[in-house]
Amino acid sequence: MKTAGRQKKQGKIFVISGPSGSGKTTLLNRLTQDKEIGKLLIKSRSLTTRPRRWQERDGRDYFFVSPGEFKRLLKAKKILEWTRYLGYYYGTPRGEVEARLKKGGHIGFCLDLKGAALLKKIYPKNTVTVFVLPPSLETLKARIEGRSRSTDKKEVAQRLKLAAQELSAASDFDYCILNNNLQVALKELKEIVLTHIAS
Ligand code: 5GP
């Protein structure tokens, strides 16, 4: 006899992408702190081998790991998707994501272009991709320089070069948001998320 168990609908994936300095992380952090959205959406925390920035906290912004630990987790298939960005590894831990989606919970991700494309490929039906555009390259430069307290001019230059390339991928995304004014961009992102959660 067949059981008439109703399968729970999988949760939604919201991938926020865009060049370094576009403000995508701030947008997703603010979104998950929103009273209404905070109850529905959590932010995925990635693993990274890059050094921690002064304002970042381990376990909140990233899980900071050594390259050896990253490779061990990768080999053990504990990483859902990963990328190498300016020489460092970044990856999404598999466990929490799969468990939450199965229960119908929603997750927001800040990923590079490769990660966005991959999640869309793995979860085509429930992934929504959003590209965040900076108002101008000058603003982008000021943001990247402003947050890197380090004297690493080379990394700032590399991020800027990559940002210019990344901008051309905007048309591959489901939505584009211009982050000229944080409150306006946040409102747009909130509308997108609420519409898809309700659908
Ligand atoms: P940042 O060093 O600026 O924090 O991150 C560099 C880039 O890596 C950003 O575009 C960020 O969104 C992306 N990124 C962070 N975590 C992950 C991840 O787990 N997977 C992928 N594919 N990209 C990530």
Helix and strand topology:
Layout: E1 13-17, H1 24-33, H2 35-38, E2 41-43, E3 46-48, E4 62-64, H3 67-75, E5 79-85, E6 88-93, H4 94-102, E7 106-110, H5 113-122, E8 127-133, H6 137-147, H7 153-166, E9 175-178, H8 182-198
Parallel strand pairs: 1-7, 1-8, 2-7, 3-4, 8-9
Antiparallel strand pairs: 3-6, 5-6
Helix pairs in contact: 1-8, 6-7
The structure holds guanosine-5'-monophosphate (5GP).
In short:
This protein has 199 residues and is an alpha/beta fold. It has eight helices and nine strands.
Features:
Rossmann fold, 8 helices, 4-stranded mixed beta sheet, 42% helix, 22% strand, 199 residues, single chain, 5-stranded parallel beta sheet, alpha/beta, binds guanosine-5'-monophosphate
Describe this structure in words.
Helix 1 packs across helix 8 (182-198) and helix 6 packs antiparallel against helix 7 (153-166). The mean pLDDT is 91. This protein has 8 helices and 9 strands. The chain is globular. Strand 5 and strand 6 (88-93) form a beta hairpin. The longest helix has 17 residues, at 182-198. The protein has one domain (13-198): Rossmann fold (3-Layer(aba) Sandwich). The strands form 2 sheets. A 5-stranded parallel beta sheet has the order 2-7-1-8-9, with helices on both faces. The protein has a 4-stranded mixed beta sheet with strand order 4-3-6-5. It has helices spanning 24-33, 35-38, 67-75, 94-102, 113-122, 137-147, 153-166, 182-198; strands at 13-17, 41-43, 46-48, 62-64, 79-85, 88-93, 106-110, 127-133, 175-178. By secondary structure, the protein is of the alpha/beta class. Bound molecules: guanosine-5'-monophosphate. Residues 20, 46, 50, 81-83, 85, 90-92, 110-112, 114-115 line the site of guanosine-5'-monophosphate. Guanosine-5'-monophosphate (5GP) binds next to strand 5, strand 6 and helix 5.
